[in-house]
Design a protein that fits this description.
alpha/beta, 5 helices, globular
Amino acid sequence: MHEARESRLRILIVEDEALLALLLQECIEDIGHEVVGTAATSAEALALARAHKPNLAFVDIHLADGPSGVETARRLSESDDTIAVFMTANQKLIPGDFAGAAGLVVKPYTANGVLAALRFIQRCINEKIAAGPAPASLTLSRSFSERWRVPAAG
């Protein structure tokens, strides 16, 4: 992982709906993070991840090549460098182990909800421990909560 002083994240967007990907990219870049690429398919996502080594990947479940987002998140999460977060309305398609992903932001999401989730994960990366409970917009996987010692909400 990166040193605590590095606060700018390198983010991959895995989303086949171009407008959603663009809006998410603008939201991320507006607060100073770098979007290393957007991918509409699993193959594109994995190629971009190999080339750019993102810290974080926002992953939809249904991509242009089908419901391949779960396996994409699993493969991205196998790297110690990349934390995957699902962004989907299809929560029931996420396996119990979250396919190695850190958590889930449910669609339709708000810009504030995405930014709260992003800032929480950024603090975890920078501080090597959660600085408090996860925001309401982010449902965490059990493994992420345990790894980063996330306290229970309220």
